[in-house]
Amino acid sequence: MTTDTGPAAPDRGPGRLLRRFTGVDESLLDWVPQERPRYSRLGAIVLNTGLMAAFSLLVALQSVVDVPVAVLIPVALAWGLFIVTFDGWLVATTHGVGSYSRFPVLLPRLLVSLLLGSVIAEPLVLWVFRPAIDAEIMTQRVSEQSEYESRLRLCNSTSGETANPACAGYLLNVASADPIRDELTRTSAQRATVSAEITRYRSAWSKLQETAKAECAGTGSTGRAGEGPACKQLRAEADRYLDLVKTEQTRLNGLDSTILRLNTALGDASEKQEQQTNVAIASRVAEWRAADGQIGLLDRAAALTRLGERSGAVMAAQWLLRMLFILIDCLPVLTAFLGRGTTYDQLLSRRLTTARLIHDQKIDLRERQEAAELALRVRKAEAYRRREMDDLDAGERSDRAAREAGVDEQIEALAARLRGDPVTWRVPPARPKRAEQPGIFAAERATHP
């Protein structure tokens, strides 16, 4: 507990580990140990949210990939760790925020939590309704498979019926009996034509026979009995129709033989086509079934939507469950959003304000120190410049005086020679060399080469 002279002793219990998920400063929390349970429970909420997210991803991955669960657990734990880290960051950014400024700070974080919670909640909702969803998917797949098989049989019928234009993509590559069926149809049409001709010829022959009998008996058109020209002509015409009947009958018999042969061939071809069609349809249906593969997230989501459309109770239950999971994922931020500011927040805000003020004062002090140093260096540079200028002026005056003295000596020597006096040559004394002054710039060069 807090003493009159300082903070409470540091907490070394399991609650300290939970509070690490919330990003609190334990040294500052030691001043208000009464709020340790609050932040410990907040850390437990963050941890539970991460565990829920890990389980959600594990459920989702099991619906997508067909691998052992032991392989998926590390991936799910990594996702859970990310959620714990992210939620911990969201909570940590709310520390030290005052009561009046909490809403604009927490609202964006709450929206992010809602989005993330929606992603996490969906696999859990599908997992809860999994038995009903799997049954719906299997029923749907069986129905689609049956419809697909029916379409294949309709579009590849062995009865020779014309296929529907919608059968594009459903036709099978099997040996068809249609050529034999077409030939049988043509042959049957020819037989019908020949049979009609035979009937017509028989009718004409029968009429001519009666007319010829009447003519030969003398009851015909001429009224003369006996085989006269008219009688013979009528019999000849009757015999011609009889020959036509015999010829067409022979042709009809041939067509009947052909039809019998084609019917036998059509039966064999139809049976073979039906067998090949059944094999091809079974293969297509097997490919269809294999293409369905493992039930995935999208399949389950679509199945749950269909269940909800058929039942209002299922629709209400799934949305209530989904909202519950989203609410659980948003609990870390909601706790900070709905709760009032704590003493820890006030202490942290005060510490942050103090740190900012101290930092600003240190920066101001450093600016002042650097400005003073620069001003001093400028003054030193000016002093050094003045000394150098004075030395240069003194040197120039000394050189000028030396030159004037030399000129005077040369004039005196020239005058002495003109007078005839002996000349004594004297070397003028050398001007003393001016001492080198290092100055401030030399010091600067030594310090900053």
TrEMBL record:
Annotated Pfam families: DUF4407 (PF14362)
InterPro entries in alphabetical order: DUF4407
Membrane among keywords: yes
Region (Disordered): 425-449
Superkingdom of source: Bacteria
Transmembrane segments annotated in the record for this chain: 39-60, 67-86, 106-129
Keywords: Membrane, Transmembrane, Transmembrane helix
Signal peptide: none
Cell membrane keyword on record: no
The protein's name in its UniProt record: DUF4407 domain-containing protein
